[in-house]
Amino acid sequence: MTDAIFRVIQAGPLITVQDSGRPNLMRYGVPNSGAMDRQSLAIANAVLGNTAHSPAIEVSVAGLSLECIAGTVTLALVGGGFRIQAGDQSLGSWNRITVHKGDRITIKPGPWGSWTYLAFAGHLEAASWLGSVATHSQSGFGGGKIATGDQITIKGAEAREELVGEIPFPISARARHDLRIVLGPQDRFFSGQVLHSLVTEPFRLTDSYDRMGVRLRGPALKPDGALSIPSEAILRGSIQVSGDGTATVLLSDHQTTGGYPKIATLIEGDIDSFCQLRPRDEVRFSVIAPKTAIAVARSRAKAMGDYFNRLRQRIGN
Amino acid sequence: MNAPLFRVVADHALLVEFGETISDAAHAEVLKLDHALKNAPFTGFREAIPAYVNILVDFDPLLTDHDTAETHLRALMLIPDTAQHQSRVHNVAVCYEAPFAQDLAAVAAKTGLTEEAVVNAHLAGSYKVYLYGFAPGYAYLAGTPPALQLPRKPSPVRGVEAGSVIIAGPQCLITTLTMPTGWWVIGRSPIQILTGRPDHPFLFDVGDQIRFQRISLADYETAKGAPI
How far apart are CA A22 and CA A132, in angstroms? Predict the structure, then answer.
């Protein structure tokens, strides 16, 4: 086993090193960060036999080009419907390939999806902060942004020829336009008419979309009165409404507290699929009861547990 | 104390609320529950995020649910708070001199005080960490004396350096990152809130008391240059 080294030929914005994140530090102002689509990152690592917390590169629709300048390594590209060009091969994401010294790989957006994950059979070297290499975009703490000219080192790189090929696509990895929410914690500040609009009218994602969150366009969700509440905790998936009635869904690098009311919160299991939507995609919200939301979380965990078990059997881990 | 309200958040959290407006009484209840939960977490508990009037309690929906979490939290609140949790006191050095006190003159003008009186009033405040928010290590220290309470600037100023001591309304904050802010910059502290120590990465805990101490520019430079 030797190292594989890549040179970054071209990297657009919002391409960072991520892992499963930095949990349990929100009380210190630190969000979890980590992959926008956590499930796809977990699959990218699992199909190479890596642990779930292993680092990978989160690639945005801006695209990424790398050249392997040393070594040989098998890699996986998982998440969304992206394209990867490697030598004369052109494949979709949900594939594993082996690259050798001199090979160039180019990742570009395909028909759908906002994020895809490039994981390696080996250990991607990256700076760690508080136990995680996940990049916190505002501070740059963690593994950091991937920029043109950078060098990326994979320690203990392995060629796993037996793994090369397609990765089964779980239905839950699709982008999701119908999103399940639980009302609150400040739904009481909105009129019945506004709450009705929230679940009957469509919203669209706007271009104001980064790792902190995405602003929506749709019916104005004006709170009753000019409202500002004492700052309180915000979560990934919170639907925060500003004074003019604009909704923003908070995502991986969200601020940990804020003073805008939250009309509702996405259920945890729908956030990965929400993140795979693109600006101008339409979404609709449906309210479910907290008990139903818990039942959904448990059945999804069971389905994904089965999926991961099948993956492990295939790769003989 | 009013009966707390339990508000459901998604499929994995409860917001326990002790009031709707900022008060010491509400924050004391937040701290009490935070400490009780730290000592006696329930199965599936992930994390608690204390704020001014409420505390968010996050849990793993595969291991517990809102009702079970609420039952546990209600039981915790019934236990008398015998062990007074120690809130630590931190002495925090601040240099109020140029080039760090870029808004001191403006604060003096707006409050009708001399610059010296602004500094003395700031030093005389009694500060407590109410919550962290905005960015890693941003501890909101309420306690700025009424004489210094100003609304935010109309628009944020970019590139305010890490370590800046900034005020707005009753709040005071020592920044940890170079970021834009609309608050008033009155000094700079050499303190490292992000300690870089894996066993204790954040200098303050929510509930801790802060006392500011004035240092000269020379002392600031020495403190910054000194190994930690």
Answer: 6
- Is there a domain that residue B84 lies in? no
CB–CB of A255 and B58 under 8 A?
no
**Are residue B105 and residue B27 in the same domain, yes or no?**
no
Q: Same structural domain for residues B19 and B53?
A: yes
Same domain, B100 and B211: yes
Q: Which of B59, B78, B97 is the last residue of a domain?
A: B78
How many angstroms away from the CA of B222 is the closest CA of chain A? 26
Please tell me which of the candidates A130, A139, A297 has its beta carbon nearest to residue B201. Answer: A130
Whether residues B73 and B103 share a domain: the answer is no
Radius of gyration from C-alpha coordinates of chain B: 20
Per CB distance under 8 Å, which residues of A are interface residues toward B? 23-30, 130-131, 136, 138-139, 141, 181-182, 184-185, 229-233, 235, 237, 255-258, 265-269, 290-291, 293-294, 296-298, 301
pLDDT tens figures, A218-276 = 999 999 875 678 999 999 999 999 988 999 999 999 999 998 999 999 999 999 999 99
Q: Do B97 and B48 fall within a single domain?
A: no
Mapping DSSP to helix (H, G, I), strand (E, B) and coil, where does residue A306 land?
Answer: helix
HSE, CB side, 13 Å, CA atoms: give it for residue A315.
Answer: 24
> Which domain does B13 fall in, by range?
5-78
Q: Which of B55, B78, B101 lies at the terminal end of a domain, its last residue?
A: B78
**CA atoms of B47 and B41, how far apart (whole Å):** 9
Q: How many domains does chain B have?
A: 2
Q: What is the pLDDT of residues B118-173, one digit of tens each?
A: 999 999 999 999 999 989 999 999 999 999 999 988 888 999 999 999 999 999 99
Spatial separation of the C-alpha atoms in residues A258 and B131, rounded to whole Å: 11
Cross-chain Cβ contact A294/B66 below 8 Å? yes
B219 & B137 share domain: yes
Tell me: pLDDT of B85 over 80. Answer: no
Q: Is the pTM of this model over 0.90?
A: yes
Q: Do A235 and B22 touch (CB under 8 A)?
A: no
Decide if B64 is inside a domain: yes
The domains found in chain A, sorted by start residue, are: 2-169 (no CATH), 178-296 (2.40.100.10)
